[in-house]
Amino acid sequence: MIRLLRGCVACVRTQRSHSDNLRRVLPWFGIFLFAAGAEAQVQVDLKFKRLQYIAYEPVVATVAITNLAGRDIELHDANGQPWLGFEITGSEEQPIAPLSGGTREPPLKIQAGQRVTRQIDLTPLYPVNEFGAYHVRTNIYFADLGKFFYSGTGVFEVTDARPIWQQTVGVPQGASGDVRTYSLMTNRFPDHTSLYVRVQDKDTGVVYATYSLGRTVSFEQPQAEIDRANQLHVLHCSAPRAWSYARIGLDGQLLTHSSFMETRTRPRLVHSGNGEIAVHGGIAEAPAQSSGSKAPKLSARPPGAPTNDR
Q: What is the pLDDT of residues 208-237, one digit of tens each?
């Protein structure tokens, strides 16, 4: 009888011990589940189209945001904190501060389970024109939780292309002494070579535009001519028997772009008697596309254009 009573007492003590342990563990387990849920509220991914970029070329980051909160959310600025930001470090791991006057993203509503993407040009927002490697991480501020969510780290390298042609011209409608320098450059990528154009004012250090005119055949020298309005005309071989034509304005606008196929005659730029320039020879593959829009001004006042593109 005594042994039976002792066994009952031991059983009660064991049950109380287990209950006490559960009471101690459950709060911490709940905190763990809450933290895991909070981490899963917003998923952020960052990608760059390629690893290498030319100095002053648009560096476009593709940011993908997935709503895992289980409800519709809105991302918006709060308490002076922008909802979308970037953390950038240079080759020597020095932090890269944003440029003043950068525009902020408007509020973004994302439905439950939805994945949205935004393409952000980093060049006008951060001084990433110096040669070297840059490491980038995107942060999303979720004001409802007062919490940041981060992407993985993306890497890109800024270099400069090989200059093959350059011409400085005056600005007809500008102030006395205003000039622009057009530069054509080539850059070799692992699977192709691209032709680039840059428009800048070397006296003030302002780079108005740097962008690719497309692939080029390296053994064919591009043809470049200046018309009476001091606009640049470029004709280059983009593939066997295929030619690409572009007209660029004084502030970097891509005014016209079209393609030609080589037939019995090879396309070439020809001056007319009144100073105009036209493409003679070949057959136009598609009608010329004209655009009055201005190419993005990649640097209003950069510290100085690259010195090795002369």
A: 999 999 999 877 899 999 999 999 999 999
The structure tokens listed for 137 are 């991480």
Q: Which residue has the tokens 């028997």?
A: 241
Per-residue pLDDT averaged across 113-118, rounded?
96
Is residue 285 classed as helix, strand or coil in its secondary structure?
Answer: coil
Give the gyration radius of the chain's Cα atoms.
30
Q: Are 230 and 171 in contact (CB under 8 A)?
A: yes
Look at residues 76, 61, 159 and name the one whose alpha carbon lies nearest to residue 119: 61
Torsion angles phi and psi, residue 108, rounded to 5: -130, 125
Q: Cα 189 from chain centroid?
A: 18
**Which comes out higher in pLDDT, residue 227 or 177?**
227
What is residue 174's predicted lDDT score, i.e. its pLDDT? Answer: 66
Phi-psi region of 205 (alpha: psi -120 to 50; beta: other; left: phi over 0): left
Nearest 5°: phi and psi at 260? -130, 145
Sequence-distant (6+) residues with CB within 8 A of 134 are: 88, 89, 90, 91, 96, 128, 155, 156, 157, 158
* 265-296 residue pLDDT tens: 899 999 887 889 999 998 888 554 444 444 44
Is it the case that residue 299 has pLDDT exceeding 70?
no
Distance CA 37, CA 189 (A): 43
Query: How, if at all, do strands 52-54 and 232-239 pair?
Result: unpaired
Q: Where are the domains of the chain?
A: 42-159, 162-305
229-234: which pairs have CB atoms within 8 A and are 24 or more residues apart? 229/172, 230/169, 230/170, 230/171, 230/172, 230/180, 231/255, 232/167, 232/182, 232/197, 232/199, 233/269, 233/277, 234/184, 234/195, 234/197
Please state which CATH class domain 42-159 belongs to.
mainly beta
